[in-house]
Specification:
6-stranded mixed sheet, 16 strands, 18 helices, 480 residues, 37% helix
Length: 480
C-alpha cells in the first residue's frame, strides 16, 4: 500500500485559500505573523484573510484585549480573550450578504521564543475558533500549548507558522477524526522541533470527544511525555499545576483502585507532611499510570482506551489528579518534576518493595551511558524521598521492608548509602489487613462475578465498577 502523501504548509494554505467558504482573521503575538505568512505566499489569500494583526506592544495589546491582572501575556486566558475579541469583531463588521455564506474562523497565538541568553526555551498558546458552515450557531474550538525545542528564535518562528497552518487545515478537513487531526499537527515537523503538552477540543463538532483521550494520544504519539487531568477530567497544563509546588506521587496500575493503594498513599503522605514547609495547600498529589502499563493491560499490546478512562474516572471520583507518563523509569519522572520545582520544594514517591528492588536493578539502566550512577544522580536528589510500603512474602512468612529487602551485591553499598542518608523511609503506619491484597486476584473475581471483592476497594469504588461494568464486571451478561 502506498503511503499517503503529506501536503506541505504552502499546499494546505492554498487549498484553504481556494475554499470560498473559509474566511477569518489572524492575531499573532510574540513570534511574528508566521502563520498568516503562508496564506499570503500561497496566493489567493484575499478570499481567506479578513484581517491579520500583531499587537506586539503591551500597552497596545492591553488596549485591545484588556489588562491581565497578573501582567502575564503568554497564557491560556490571554489567548481566549484574543479569540473572543477577534470573532466578535467579524460578526459585528462583516454583515454584507456575501459574508453570510462564510464559515468564519479566528486563529490566534501568544508565544515567547527562545531569548538571546538561551535561558528561556520558548513556549506558548495557540488556538482556533471556527465554524464549518454559516448555519452553525456555536463555534468550535481547539486550543493547544506548545514548547519549542529548537535553539534559535528564527527556527522556532518557522515551526510555529507550520503548526498554525496544520491546525487550521486539520480543523476544516479532519474535524471528524480528532486522532488523525492530532497526528497531522506534525506534518512536515518532527518531535525534535516542538512538544505539544496539552490539547483541548470544544464545540458542537467535538461534543463526543473526551479530551483525556486526546491528551493520551499526545503521549502515545511521542508528542509529549506527560498528560495531567484534574478530578473533573479536565486537561491541565503540568507547568501551571506543578510550578514551585511540593509533589507527592504514587505510581500504580490502579486496576482496580484498592484499599492497599489508598493505604500506601495516605500513610506515605502522612509522613511526607512532616517535612519542613510541606502542607496540603502547597503540595500537589499525583496518581501516575505509565503508558507501558496501559499498553500491557490492553489486548495484544494495543492501548485499551476504555480501560484507561475507567481507571481515571475512579481516581477522579476520589478527588485526585491523574498523570499519564511515558516514563517507565522513576528517575525520568523525578527529572521531569525538577523542571517545575525549586531546591526548597520536596518530592515524595510512595512505592512498594518490588518497585524499589527494580530501581536497584543495574539491568534497568543498561541503555543509559552513565548506567545506574547517572540515573541515581537524577533520582536521589536532595529534595527527593522514597516512602516504602512493606510487602508480605507469604511463602517465606517475612514482612519485607527497607531493612531486609535484597538487592544485588554490586549495588548493596550504594543502597545502604541512600538508606542511611534518609532518602528511603519505611512506611510504618500501614494497615496490616491490606497486606494480603493482590489486584490480579481481585480482577479475576470481578470478571467472574464472584462475591467478596467489594471489601477490597475504598467506599464508592465497588459501586462505580458495578454501575459502569468496569474491568469485565458482568461482561458475559452485558453481551446477551
Amino acid at each position: 500500500m502506498a503511503l499517503e502523501q503529506v501536503l506541505t504548509p504552502k499546499q494546505k494554505a492554498l487549498e484553504i485559500n481556494l475554499n470560498p467558504k473559509i474566511y477569518g482573521s489572524f492575531a499573532e503575538i510574540g513570534a511574528g505573523q508566521e502563520t498568516v505568512r503562508f496564506f499570503y505566499r500561497a496566493g489567493a489569500a484575499s478570499g481567506t484573510v479578513a484581517k491579520a494583526m500583531s499587537a506586539y506592544d503591551k500597552e497596545m495589546s492591553d488596549s485591545i484585549y484588556g489588562v491581565e491582572e497578573n501582567r502575564r501575556y503568554v497564557t491560556q486566558a490571554r489567548l481566549k480573550k484574543m479569540l473572543d475579541h477577534e470573532m466578535s469583531l467579524m460578526k459585528e463588521r462583516l454583515i454584507l450578504d456575501h459574508y453570510k455564506e462564510k464559515a468564519f474562523f479566528t486563529y490566534a497565538n501568544t508565544v515567547t521564543t527562545i531569548d538571546y541568553s538561551k535561558k528561556n526555551e520558548g513556549q506558548g498558546w495557540i488556538g482556533l475558533r471556527f465554524k464549518l458552515n454559516a448555519e452553525e450557531e456555536k463555534a468550535n474550538e481547539i486550543i493547544i500549548h506548545v514548547k519549542f525545542k529548537e535553539n534559535s528564535a528564527q527556527l522556532q518562528q518557522e515551526t510555529l507558522g507550520v503548526l498554525g497552518v496544520n491546525l487550521i487545515y486539520g480543523a476544516y478537513y479532519l474535524y471528524d477524526n480528532p486522532r488523525q487531526l492530532i497526528k497531522s499537527l506534525y506534518d512536515t515537523l518532527d518531535n525534535d522541533q516542538l512538544e505539544i503538552d496539552m490539547i483541548n477540543f470544544r464545540g458542537p463538532q467535538f461534543k463526543y470527544v473526551d479530551n483525556r483521550l486526546m491528551s493520551l494520544q499526545l503521549v502515545k504519539n511521542g508528542m509529549t511525555d506527560v498528560a495531567v487531568f484534574n478530578p473533573q477530567g479536565k486537561n491541565i497544563l503540568p507547568a501551571d499545576l506543578l510550578y514551585k509546588k511540593n509533589i507527592f506521587a504514587i505510581r500504580g496500575s490502579f486496576r482496580p483502585f484498592m484499599n492497599v493503594n489508598m493505604d500506601m498513599f495516605e500513610s506515605g503522605l502522612e509522613i511526607f507532611k512532616q517535612e519542613d514547609d510541606v502542607r496540603i495547600d502547597n503540595t500537589e498529589i499525583l496518581f501516575e499510570i505509565t503508558l507501558s502499563n496501559l499498553i500491557a493491560s490492553g489486548f495484544e499490546g494495543e492501548l485499551n482506551e476504555r480501560d484507561f478512562l475507567d481507571r481515571a474516572d475512579i481516581i477522579g471520583s476520589l478527588g485526585y489528579n491523574v498523570i499519564i507518563s511515558n516514563f517507565s523509569e522513576y528517575y525520568k519522572l523525578v527529572d521531569y518534576f525538577s523542571k517545575f520545582t525549586r531546591n526548597q520544594t520536596k518530592v515524595g514517591l510512595a512505592m512498594g518493595v518490588n518497585n524499589l528492588v527494580e530501581i536497584f536493578n543495574e539491568q534497568y539502566y543498561a541503555d543509559l551511558p552513565g548506567g545506574i550512577m547517572e540515573a541515581f544522580g537524577k533520582l536521589f536528589k536532595k529534595n527527593v524521598k522514597i516512602y516504602l510500603y512493606p510487602y508480605l512474602d507469604k511463602q517465606k512468612h517475612i514482612l519485607l521492608n527497607s531493612k531486609n529487602l535484597l538487592v544485588s551485591d554490586n549495588v548493596h553499598e550504594l543502597y545502604k548509602y541512600f538508606l542511611y542518608n534518609g532518602r528511603i523511609t519505611d512506611i510504618l503506619n500501614y494497615k496490616k489487613e491490606y497486606l494480603d491484597s493482590y489486584s490480579r486476584l481481585i480482577l479475576d473475581k470481578i470478571a467472574n462475578n464472584e462475591d467478596g471483592w467489594e471489601k477490597e476497594c475504598p467506599d464508592g469504588v465497588a459501586d462505580m465498577i458495578k454501575e459502569k461494568g468496569m474491568f469485565g464486571y458482568n461482561f458475559k451478561y452485558l453481551l446477551q
